[in-house]
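R.M. (postdoc): so does anyone remember the format we settled on? I'll just put the structure tokens first.
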């Protein structure tokens, strides 16, 4: 089994991030086609020499057929709670990702092959004066609200020094091989918005650390890590999962997350911060995921938020003040908004079903309509409100 050399890839992947940030003045990357999909920029691919396969167990026949075609096994992960097996393969020289996908899927009907896409964190810290407006805007009590559903997040990891790890309020597992602390404090901040002071009480947070510090500047995760994280969270009995990552559509992510949602795991995702004119970002744009946009204290939409028919709800996400272990932080972005929706679901005593359409109807019924009357592409059903069991509604 070939092991991926981590260190040699770090430099070129960091260069890809720099190219993305400087996209307005740099030449565009050569797009990579995923079979049955649209062109994907090279900067959204973890490694163009790899293809990822998702198949139902037993997987040995699929793997054997792939090896006979010249592919090399890099790693295999059994997703026990999703009833799937994830195989990472090295593509033979001279073949593209699109060719590899088509070849493997033709050889193994029922298997899904795809690129190893990257998904980036969707919030940024700011220096401008934030305000403690968010709780009042949605009717959330300042002393917090009791969770009646278990909560998880797929994000960067919380720091080893985070007090929640020591006292059991945070249960964490990482899904990459690099032995390094998180490159950013994004995980700490999201944990604070979910279960910090004044947020959800009485529940441990399951933190799936998928953001490898050695990849792409330490702000992105690969599809393999995300799917492994979903499988772990389901095995831990987590009901509601907050996802602060956004990226391209991926057939593997579609298949794996759809399986989790069909088993009543509620997935809440940041809609994305790439602006109103870009194509939908995933996983938020999948129909079985709740897509959350961000608004400010005047109920204006965040100027970098994605827009489209996939938007389900709006929540506070601009100039969000958060105390993080004695430091005042200001957060902006759809990542900052998503935890307010996740918390509202987790604290709702009246939510009788975790089937996604039932959750969507329940949230829409309690939302405050914004923008044009009815559901729209900017605010979805409107501003989320705290459930009646928390004093909202």
């Amino acid at each position: 089994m070939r092991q991926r050399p981590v260190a040699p890839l770090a430099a070129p992947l960091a260069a890809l991030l720099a190219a993305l940030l400087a996209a307005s003045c740099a030449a565009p990357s050569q797009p990579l086609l995923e079979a049955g999909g649209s062109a994907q920029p090279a900067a959204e691919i973890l490694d163009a020499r790899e293809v990822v396969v998702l198949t139902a167990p037993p997987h040995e026949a699929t793997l054997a057929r792939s090896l006979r075609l010249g592919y090399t096994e890099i790693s295999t992960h059994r997703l026990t709670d999703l009833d799937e097996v994830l195989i990472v393969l090295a593509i033979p020289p001279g073949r593209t990702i699109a060719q590899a996908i088509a070849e493997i899927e033709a050889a193994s009907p029922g298997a899904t092959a795809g690129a190893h896409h990257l998904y980036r964190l969707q919030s940024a810290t700011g220096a401008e004066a934030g305000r403690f407006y968010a709780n009042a805007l949605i009717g959330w009590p300042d002393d917090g609200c009791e969770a009646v559903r278990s909560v998880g997040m797929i994000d960067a990891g919380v720091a080893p020094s985070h007090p929640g790890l020591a006292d059991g309020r945070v249960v964490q597992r990482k899904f990459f091989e690099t032995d390094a602390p998180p490159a950013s404090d994004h995980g700490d901040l999201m944990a604070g918005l979910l279960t910090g002071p004044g947020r959800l009480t009485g529940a441990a947070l399951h933190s799936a650390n998928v953001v490898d510090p050695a990849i792409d500047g330490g702000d992105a995760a690969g599809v393999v890590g995300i799917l492994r994280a979903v499988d772990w969270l389901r095995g831990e009995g987590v009901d509601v999962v907050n996802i602060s990552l956004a990226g391209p559509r991926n057939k593997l992510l579609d298949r794996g997350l759809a399986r989790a949602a069909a088993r009543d795991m509620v997935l809440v995702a940041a809609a994305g911060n790439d602006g109103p004119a870009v194509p939908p970002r995933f996983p938020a744009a999948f129909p079985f995921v709740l897509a959350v946009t961000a608004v400010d204290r005047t109920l204006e939409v965040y100027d970098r938020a994605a827009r489209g028919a996939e938007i389900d709800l709006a929540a506070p996400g601009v100039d969000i003040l958060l105390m993080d272990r004695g430091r005042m932080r200001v957060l902006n972005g759809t990542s900052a908004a998503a935890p307010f929706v996740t918390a509202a679901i987790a604290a709702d005593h009246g939510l009788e079903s975790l089937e996604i359409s039932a959750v969507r109807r329940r949230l829409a019924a309690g939302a405050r309509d914004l923008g044009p009357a009815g559901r729209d592409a900017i605010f979805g059903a409107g501003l989320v409100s705290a459930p009646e069991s928390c004093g909202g509604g």
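R.M.: ...and that's the designed sequence above, right after the tokens. Also worth knowing: Confidence is low (pLDDT under 50) at residues 1-40. The two ends are 55 Å apart (CA to CA).
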